[in-house]
Amino acid sequence: MTIRIMLADDHAVVREGYRRLLERTRDIEVASEAASGEEAYRTYCATEPDVGVIDINLPDMSGVEVTRRIVARDPAARILVFSMHEDVVFASRALQAGARGYVTKSSAPDVLVDAVRAVAEGRTYLSHDVAQKLALQLMPGQTVPFADLSPREFEVFRLLAEGRSVGEIARALSLSPKTVSNYQSIVKQKLEADSSAQMVWIALRRGLVGAGGQ
């Protein structure tokens, strides 16, 4: 039985590499591709693949937000998020949004193939590096970073830290500017940040954004 995949990554060369990797196997077919979050959502809804393989860093909205929207529309959706980020905050947010798996791009090539098969079967799959860190983070006395932020608050925080304006975030998340401003105030309060610059510093310290932007 062939597993039909939707592959979402904003870099054409990267998509080509992963498509070749996945299609080396007899049971996986990349049926559709997307280069942005909005395109990923539309493509998933139009093609209804067995598994959506979605990069967490997409130009208009994160893979976490795409996952949240897809799962809200189809609770049975099987989404595998893959990312350059090894920090548990990304994996925990992806799983919270409804993803069935999380794989880092530093993992061995066969790990992605194994993850796709596991998610297609309805199992949860985490690459070893993330699984180990997440297990340590969930030990008594430890907390997952930004656990107090709701999924939508975290997404607004991430986009603000990237330097997006309130208007840009409103368009990306299909919210009103007033609602985004309200989320901004809530996030500042929860993070005990006095300014937008301090929020950016917190995001940089946790590796949510790079020093030169994403």
Which short descriptors sum up this protein?
Arc Repressor Mutant, subunit A, globular, single chain, alpha/beta, Rossmann fold, 214 residues
Radius of gyration (CA) equals: 17 Å
Which residues sit in consecutive blocks of at least 5 with pLDDT less than 50?
none
What is the element string, with H for helices and E for strands?
EHEHEHEHEHEHHHHH
Overall mean pLDDT score? 86
CATH class of the largest domain: Alpha Beta
CATH architecture of the largest domain: 3-Layer(aba) Sandwich
> What is the spatial order of strands in the main beta sheet?
2-1-3-4-5-6
| Distinct helical segment count | 10
Q: Tell me the structural class.
A: alpha/beta
In one word, what is the shape? Answer: globular
CATH topology of the largest domain: Rossmann fold
What does this entry look like structurally?
With 214 residues, the chain is an alpha/beta fold. The chain folds into two domains: 3-137, Rossmann fold, CATH 3.40.50; 151-206, Arc Repressor Mutant, subunit A (Orthogonal Bundle). It has helices at residues 12-22, 37-47, 63-73, 88-97, 109-120, 128-137, 151-161, 166-173, 177-191, 196-206, and strands spanning 3-8, 28-34, 51-55, 79-83, 101-104, 125-126. It has a six-stranded parallel β-sheet, sandwiched between helices. Helix 1 links the parallel strand 1 (3-8) and strand 2 (28-34). Helix 2 (37-47) runs parallel beside helix 3 (63-73) and helix 7 crosses helix 9 (177-191). 39% of the residues are buried. The model has no long low-confidence stretch (mean pLDDT 86).
